[in-house]
Write a structure and sequence with these properties.
Blueprint (H helix, E strand, L loop, with lengths): L4 H9 L11 E4 L7 E9 L3 E5 L4 E4 L8 E13 L6 E8 L2 E3 L2 E7 L2 E4 L4 E2 L2 E7 L2 E6 L4 E6 L8 E6 L8 E5 L8 E3 L16 E11 L9 E2 L1
Antiparallel strand pairs: 1-5, 1-18, 2-5, 2-17, 3-4, 3-17, 4-7, 5-6, 6-9, 7-8, 8-12, 9-11, 10-11, 11-14, 12-13, 13-16, 14-15, 15-17
Length: 225
């Protein structure tokens, strides 16, 4: 799948495409108390991709020993879970096996929130990651850039959550390549090549994350209705 400047431009046009907020959802995981706040884990399904409008492309890939992304966090379980406040938090994120132009790269994020801003249809709910801010570093150059919204806490990425398809299965948080977001590059070090990233660059990114409940029966992922 090609990552192009055209996709970055499309993302810029969709910066205000934030869906209307729903009154609340039922969030269920078998075998846990309701209402309660429950731990969840996540892992990537396939590679993670990010591209800047300057042309820099970062990929993080699954290998035998490690996934491109693993996460820890919490989700609020209950018969009516109002949103806001966020339905969940991604409190730990660990990116692995990332490269840019063949050079090793690291990603350092702050905790992200998970909100559900629209009703559920056929097991699929609009999802939004909030509080998004992360720094990408290429030690060999060296080059460092931070990606965030207009402030350090209002960055977002829109995606979707899909319920488990069977008992004991994971649910899926999908951020399709080119998902609307309001992220741009800040704090770009002077040593970063302009062909990789410049201050103010917009970004496109894509990821699929499988979610599982730590305490739920058979570690089944959250079901949202």
């Amino acid at each position: 799948m090609a990552l192009t400047a055209t996709a970055v431009t499309a993302t810029a046009a969709a910066l205000t495409a934030t869906p209307a907020w729903a009154d609340g959802h039922r969030v269920f995981m078998p075998g846990v108390l309701s209402p309660s706040t429950q731990p969840v884990t996540g892992k990537s399904s396939g590679s993670i991709a990010l591209a800047t409008s300057s042309g820099g492309v970062m990929t993080c890939v699954d290998t035998g020993p490690s996934k491109a992304l693993t996460t820890t966090g919490t989700v609020r379980v209950g018969t009516v879970v109002p949103d806001p406040p966020p339905t969940g938090w991604v409190t730990g994120q660990f990116f692995s096996n990332c490269t840019i132009s063949g050079l090793a790269a690291t990603v350092t994020p702050q905790p992200w929130s998970l909100s559900l801003p629209a009703p559920t249809f056929s097991g699929v709910t609009a999802a939004q990651l909030g509080n998004v801010k992360f720094t990408v570093n290429i030690p060999a150059i060296p080059c460092s850039a931070t990606f965030q919204g207009s402030t350090s806490s209002n960055g977002y990425i829109n995606g979707k959550h899909t319920n488990p398809t069977s008992a004991g299965a994971a649910s899926t948080l999908s951020l399709p390549l080119g998902s609307s977001n309001n992220l741009s590059a800040t704090a770009v070090s002077a040593t970063c090549p302009s062909s990789i990233v410049r201050w103010g660059d917009l970004v496109v990114l894509g990821a699929v994350i499988e979610l599982r409940g730590v305490n739920s029966t058979a570690n089944e992922g959250p079901t949202i209705t």
